[in-house]
Amino acid sequence: MRSRVFFAYSREGPAVSELVRFDGVVKKFRTPRGGRQTALDGFSMTIPRGSLVGLLGPNGSGKTTALKVLLGLVRADQGTLRAFGHDLPRDQRFVARKMGAIIEGPAFTPSLTGHHNLRLLGELHGVKKRLVDEVLDLVGLAEAAHRSYSGYSLGMKQRLGVAAALLPSPELLVLDEPMNGLDPEAVRDMRELLVRLQREREMTVVVSSHILAEVELVCDRVTIVRHGRVICDDSVETLLARGPARTVLRGPEVSSARELLDAHGYSVIPAAGSELHVSTSGPSSEVLRVLAEHGVFPDEIRREKASLEDAYIEAVRKADEERAQIVDTNKLSTRGRPHAS
Ligand SMILES: Nc1ncnc2c1ncn2[C@@H]1O[C@H](COP(=O)(O)OP(=O)(O)OP(=O)(O)O)[C@@H](O)[C@H]1O
Ligand SMILES: [Mg+2]
């Protein structure tokens, strides 16, 4: 039987297919030395209702900050943000009731059991004990519920975090790196849980992660952030179709092939078993030609469909190239400008 809890959420107002929209959001933090650190620099993304969105980007690119702005934990300096058809931060209190989140690791009392920790949190949300049991069951912690939190493994702690985020029966679940530090089995469990929440419970889920292979398996949308800006906000399908194909080279000469192709502007990823993965938008013969001209001949060459990792590396590389060009153009125009007298 379907759970009462997760379907009890209100659906007042017209159905909003676009649950969240960030538009040109800017956030600058003050640094201890009186400077400003730009975390979001015109950040724009959409979260469609019912989607499972992977938020990707290098360390420090602004993922956590964007999620904090959405949750009202950090206030943006500029730009607009709408969620559930409401403006934020103006209607933050209303929207907060529809969101559940874990950001930068959940905080629990170590000496209390998982169950007790959730009971305390549940009281804050005014939820019944039955719901606590239900979310513990959902995340696979029913058996360990009455063990003390301090004895939980990292995977169990992460799952308790997700259980806590589910307590308000959210429509939108926001998870900041829920797969961090998990072993492969726990990653698989988390992946299955996220898919179940989306498909069976009709939740919209946003999950930031550095594990691209997992994001490719579970997410239907991907948003890539670089230097506080979104450089890609698309369905995984579109991104992969548009992304580069991969030419795989194999053999003892892959290290010289790597240097050579790097120097020719290709995105190159070394892989296990003396393999080299080269992102190519053109035919593999172009790669072969470059190598042959320099007397490098791999033992084996094959072409594969691009993975999310290839598409990600390529998107970041392109964004960096464009950024470098803008910086160069700015330098030139500054130099060319006459000095004020
Ligand atoms: N409270 C803060 N005070 C000052 N600077 C901050 C603060 N929070 C974040 N930053 C800076 O803002 C930028 C973006 O940080 P953020 O934590 O959003 O990145 P991230 O993409 O989540 O990185 P990671 O993948 O490492 O979690 C970084 O340069 C970071 O140092
Ligand atoms: Mg982060």
Automatic annotation (TrEMBL):
Query: Membrane-crossing residues?
Result: none
Q: Would you say which domain of life the source belongs to?
A: Bacteria
SMART domains linked: AAA
* Protein name listed in UniProt: ABC transporter ATP-binding protein
Regions annotated as coiled coil? none
Give GO MF terms, alphabetically.
Answer: ATP binding; ATP hydrolysis activity
Give any Pfam family that matches.
ABC_tran
Question: Which region is the signal sequence?
Answer: none
